[in-house]
Amino acid sequence: MPVLQTVTRETFWTIGPVGEAAFYYLAAVAILVFLYGVYARISEYAAAPADPFDRLDDLPGRIARATRLLLSNEAQFDRDTYAGVMHTFIVWGFLTLLIGTTILAIDMDIWTKLLGQPSFFVGRFYLSYSLVMDALGLLFVVGVGMALWRRYGVRDPRLWGKHTDLEDDAFVWTLFVLGVGGYVVEALRILGTGFPDFETVSFVGYALALVGQEAGVSPATAEAAYAAVWWSHSLLALGFVALLPYAKPVHMLTSMANIVTRDEHAGKRLPGVPADLPPDEIGTGSVDDFTWRERLDQDACTTCGRCSSVCPANEVGRNLDPRDVILDLKAYREERAAGEHEEVPIVADGGESVIDAESMHACLSCMACMDACPVDIEHVRQFTGMNRRLTESGEMDPNVQDAMMNAFQQGNVFGEPARKRPEWTASLDFEVPDAREREVELLWYVGDYPSYDERNRRVARSLARLFEAADVSYGILYADEANDGNDVRRVGEEGLYEMLVEDNTAALSDAAFDEIVCTDPHSYNTFAHEYPELADDFDYSVSHYTEVVERLVREGRLDVPASLDRTVTYHDPCHLGRMNDVYEAPRDLVRETGATLAEMPRNRSNSFCCGGGGGGVWTEVEEERKPSEERLREAVEDTDGAVESFVVACPMCTTMFEDGRKTGGYEDEVEILDLTELLVAAMDAGAPGDGVSADANTDDPAGTTAD
User: Is the dihedral of CA 127, 133, 135, 138 positive or negative?
Assistant: First the structure.
C-alpha cells in the first residue's frame, strides 16, 4: 500500500475503549437534551396564536435567501465593516468546524462501523481535510478574538445594556476557548506522536506543537496530558450543544428561522384586527397575545444593539430603546412560563407594566431599527400591537387624540371642513381639474398637509405647476378626499383607519384614472401596501410624485433647465426611502436643476428620521434636542460643502424641519425646500424675462405663492 494511503490519525488517541464508550454516551445525552430543547421551543411556537401573514410560502426560495444572507453576512457589513468581517470569520469558521466534525462522525460511526466500509479519512482526503479545518478554524478564532476585543477592549457602547449579563460573557468566552482548545488538543497529539511529516498541513496545530517543544514539553508529557485536555475540550463542546436551545445562544438557531419567515413588507404594512374581536382584546395585552412569529422575533435577538444605535428617538434621549423593548418582552414571557413573575399588563401608562406607555409614544415608526437588524426582527409590528392596546384603554397622548378626533369627524387631522380642502388652488392662475368629473391619467391624492397647512400649500401649488408645465392629464378629488390613515394606524387607531380606507376607496371608485400619485410618502406607503389588504378592489398603480415627475422629465414631457447655482442636500423621508426604496428619482431631479447635491453622512437607507412619523408630528415633547434639529445639524456641520438648501420630498418632513429650523437656531444657515419648490425655482430661473410667475411673491424662496 502506498505510504500516502496510510496517512491518517487516531481519533481517540490515548482515550481508550472505555473513554470512547463514555464519550458516545455523553454525546448521545447532549444531543437528546439539545433536541428536547428545540422541541420545546417549537411546541411553544406551535401553540401560540397564528400569524396573520403567510410566512412559509415559497419555502425553498425563503431558505435559499436566508442561506445567502447567512453566508454573505450582508446585513452585518451594512454600516459596520468591522462587524461584517468579524461575523464572516465566525460564521464561516463555525460552519466549517461543524461540517468537519459531522464528516468525521459519518466516517467513524456510519461508514466504517455500521456499513463495514474502509475509512475514507485517509490519504489525500485526510490531508485536505486537515488543511481546511486548520485554516477555517483559525478564521473562527480570529473572529471570536475580534468580538472579544470589541466587547472588552474597545467596549463598544451598543454591546452593553440592561440585558447584558454573565451569560453573554460565558457565550463569547466559550466560543474562544473551544476554538483555541481544538488547536491545543491537535498540538499535543502532533508533539506526542513525534511530529509526523504529513501533519505540517495542520499548520496551526503544528506551529503550536513546535512552540510547546521549545517551551520544554516532551512527547511523553504531551501524551500524558492529552487525555485531560481532550476531555476538557469535549465536555465543553458537548455542554455547549446541550444548553444551546435553553440560553442566549439560541439565537444561533432562531435567527436563521426568523430570516426564513420574514415578511418582505414588514413595517410597510401592519396586520389588521379581526372584525369580531372585542375592544378589550385588541392589541397586545398579555403573553397569550404574542403570535408565534412575535415570540420567534424575541428569541432571535442577538443583543447586538444595532437597532438602538440607529433609533432617532433613542439618540435624542427619549424613553425608547428598541432592543430593550424586545428583550423585556422576551424576559417577561420566559419568566411567566417558569412561574417566576406575576402577571402584569404588557404596556400601560403608569403603574407596573412590562413596557411603559411613554416608550411606545416615543416610537416614530421610521423602521430604522428594522432596517438595521441583521436577523429581521419586526419591531414596529410589535410596537403597533402595544399602541393598539393603549388606544383601546384610552391611554393616548392628548394631542394625538385630538388629531384622531379631527380625522374621525372631518376626515382630516386639522379639523377643518372638507369643503376647505381645495382652497389651496384659489391663488393659482389656472384651474386644477376635478377627477370626479372627467377621466384623467393621474389621480393626484394631495393629502392633509398640502391641503390645509399654510406652509405645505406652497408644495401643492408647486406640484400643480409642474403637472401643468408637463401638460399631463391629472385631477384631484377635491372635498371627497379624506386622510390616508397611514399614521392613524401606526398610533393604534385601527378602527378609524378602516373607516378612512372605506371612505377613500369609495371616492376613488367614482373616478376614472390610470395611476394614483401621492404628494406624501405616508399616503404612498399605505395605498401601495395596506389598502389592498383591506379593500379587495383596490388594485391601482400607486406612485410618489418624485417618481412621476422624474418620469415626465425622462420622457421629455417636462423641461427643467439646469439654472440653479447652489449647494443643496437631500433628506430621504423614511416612508419614501427606507420603506419603499425610492432613492434615485429625487436625486436625479435635484441634479436636473443644476444644483450641486451634497450628501449627508446618513443618507438613503441610513437616513435619520425627521421625528414626524408614528404620530410624532402631533406630539409635543420636552427635550433638549429634537430629531429634526439633529438632522439639520448634520446637514450644516457634517456635510461636505456649504449647504444652502435642505431639500425634502414629504410634507410632514417640511413641517418638522421648518420647526427644527426655528427651535434649533438654523434660520440664518439653511432654507427648507420641498423638491417641487426646487424644480419650480429652476424653471422660473431659466424662463425668459424676469423668471417670476404672476402668482409668485418675494417671500417665497422657491418662486411659488405663499399664503
Answer: negative
